[in-house]
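Q: What structure does this chain adopt?
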Amino acid sequence: MPELPEVSAIAAYLDERTAGLPIRRVDVASLAVLKTADPPYTALTGRTVRAVDRIGKYLVIRTVAGPDSTDDGEIDLVIHLSRAGWVRWSGALSPTPPRPGGRSPIALRVHCGLPGEGFDVTEAGTQKRLAAWIVRETSDVERIATLGPDALAVSREDFGAILAGTTSRLKTVLTDQRTLSGVGNAYSDEILHTARLSPFASAKTLSDEHVDALYATMRAVLIEATSRLTDREVATMKSEKRTGLRVHARTGLPCPVCGDTVREVSYADRSFQYCPTCQTGGKILADRRMSRLLK
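A:
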């Protein structure tokens, strides 16, 4: 799933290529992707891209009235890439709209700039969770209205208050978007490994020194990952992300810090990784999937 570093890099990539350009047309290959109907997606035609940025893990294409627009207010196209969504830029888009219900991974196509220029929003796999909203205010997207503070904008004081106010495990706190926005499964693994903290540690029990270390580590990991991805071609960002991961998705491989075997805890639809030596004092955490099978 694209997280804060990838969404930031994608936003910067699109902003560089589309800011100031007119939207000539938007094609919707899957109506199920659209979660709003007013304004309609056709209202984007003729408008100009003002900027592309992000809120949490949401990509926001901000548009203003163009010379052919009758609506002079701002209209935003908000996209949540979910687990398998991505963006693909092209200078040779087909003028023929993608066929609805076909096998193509294309969910949305935005034609902007010169004929043939624009980008596709794609989703791989059979579980279609990608979502798009067309709104006048980003707060009109309920999920955005309920987001916690951004992981790179939250202060140390507020971060400490968040941890002190919950008995949840650190893994849960870092990935709950209503508590803290931007961090997902992959980078929470990386943050906790770098901070040498157990995913199952209770947030409320952390000492001030551990809170300081976790806060600094969270910022360092996210900033470094964002910097590594920025200025990359969007097509290479996924592979670049993988090369920078130290424990996530590396089950069975040696920890790059201590050499111990990276372990995994599995749930019904996801898993996370950790190093016993670096994070849990050598203790092997119970694998939820195996625990169920053994009952």
